[in-house]
Amino acid sequence: MENFEFVSPTHFVFGRGAEEQVGEKLAAAGAKRVLVHFGGGSAVASGLIDRVGASLDAAGIEHLELGGVRPNPEITLVREGVRLCKEANVDWVLAVGGGSVIDSAKAIANGACVEGDVWELFETKALDHDVLPIAVVLTIPAAGSEASKNTVISNDELGRKTGYANNAQRPKFAFMNPELTFTLPPFQTAAGLTDMFCHLLERFFDDVGAVPVTDNLNLSLMNTIRAEAPRVLADPDNYDARANIMWAGMLCHQGLAGVGRHEDWATHGLEHELSALNPAITHGAGLAVMFPAWMEYVHTENPARFAFYGQAVFGLTPTGDVEADALSAIDETRAFFAMSRDGLIPQSVCKIHPRFATPHRITIIVGIAVAIISGFTPINVIAEMCSVGTLFAFIISSIGVMVMRRKYPDLPRPFRCPAIYVVGTLAIVSCGYIMYNLSSMTWERFWVWSALGILIYFLYGYRHSRENKEDAA
Ligand code: NZQ
Ligand code: ZN
Fold first, then answer.
1. pLDDT-based confidence at 460, cuts 50/70/90?
2. What residues line ligand 1, using a CB cutoff of 6 Å?
3. Angle at which helices 303-314 and 322-337 pack, to 10 degrees?
């Protein structure tokens, strides 16, 4: 077991109606003027912000509001919060929301106590300043920021998302009412479950051997999350399931589950880069894709540890082949992140954000169709058909990339190819010229293929809209 220091000053108020104690508890702690910080709308729509405001009023605490924190919070709003705190002499920051709101509040609480730009702290990691005390009303169990020492903030201008750790920014109060999480959409519930599970994996798989006291706590949390996940997804208003998940989310990341270990955090670092590239990517969904891939990459370093994890968490029976057992454990992890047959969390990068999704099922179906047909058709005919298809696909892709570039001028590479309009136009003209010279028989085949493609497209669209309707219901 490695040496460690562990600080956890958070006072938890857990259970139904917890948020109604905000005013009383903050007044007792000496709060006079509070900045209430919240997200894009859920806390306003549910009336939570009004309830919290009423609680502060009743305790005679002045308060001002700053909403609009987006998921993957950004430094611009943090700067705005810092300005407000300095101008209004704010003495406490109250975050009402999830990890994004809490992280933004933590950054504000730091920035309010330093002279220069708050982003400097994310570069220098300086610790020699005061931090305004922070309280939290949690609305989503996921990031564990309600008790953690970290804040993670994006800087869109620099294209970065990075963390800053400081024990002084651990919240002084966390008000946790599981009922506040009933309104979470299934996707956010599933992303949160994945994130908290990954906070355990980051701690469990490092270069330190077994640390039983820590590892057993860690494994018990993994088992709890695995058991409660299906209950909470099947019955979102199940108080007990929500309560277990909410408390687990905190325990996963407040630090105890990793004491005495080095911890890894490579995958979180990678996922933060992904979210920096596209802030629409939900942290937990990014992790669902990246963690099993990371496990596959590193498992050969210590396959026995992965095999042990598979037995302790997924109940796998040892086969005598440690390598095979390790791989089975990774498969189980991937399946769990997909929330089994609910398929709520994507398993491949192309599906992390719907806007950039690839209709991979169509690609597979067309591939299988081509493979079957090629068994009965002379190879030269296949080659001819593919070449028309390739030319056409090339034209469509060229147009698509140009349109996308116009619509989203900040798209990263490979869409950021220089002289894209020249290259795209040349591609379209040259492909068009070749297609113009094709024989009529080739064209007939081409139209047959296109009709098949259109049919599959509509079938896929129909299924997709049906799935969306089911999700919304
Ligand atoms: O903005 P609103 O309208 O509130 O909607 C939010 C948001 O769209 C919604 N939501 C939250 N509570 C809700 C709700 N919708 C309905 N009902 C409710 N009760 O959920 C969406 C996601 O919220 P967000 O705060 O972004 O979720 P999460 O808690 O997963 O936080 C993610 C952020 O935390 C960082 C991540 O990088 C990411 O930026 N992390 C912070 C850590 C830390 N400080 O220790 C560690 C983590 O590993 C993580 O990196
Ligand atoms: Zn995380």
1. confident
2. 39-43, 71-72, 97-101, 103, 139-140, 142-145, 148, 150-152, 180-181, 183-184, 188, 192, 195, 253, 268, 283-284
3. 50
Which ligand 1 atom sits closest to the C-alpha of 199?
48
466 vs 147: which has the higher pLDDT = 147
First to last CA, the chain: 49
Instruction: Measure the CA–CA gap between 223 and 273, rounded to whole angstroms.
Output: 29
pLDDT of residue 341: 41
Q: Taking a C-beta distance cutoff of 8 angstroms, is the pair 173, 135 a contact?
A: yes
Ligand 1 mean position, distance from CA 25 (Å): 24
What is this structure's pTM? 0.78
Residue with the bigger pLDDT between 249 and 335: it is 249
In 3D, which of 204, 312, 314 has the Cα closest to residue 257?
A: 204
Better-predicted residue by pLDDT, 238 or 352: 238
User: Is the per-residue pLDDT at 280 higher than 50?
Assistant: yes
Query: What's the chain's average pLDDT?
Result: 88
In this structure, which residue's CA is closest to atom 38 in ligand 1? 72
Instruction: Label residue 263 left, alpha or beta by phi (over 0 means left) and psi (-120 to 50 means alpha).
Output: left
Distance CA 124, CA 116 (A): 12
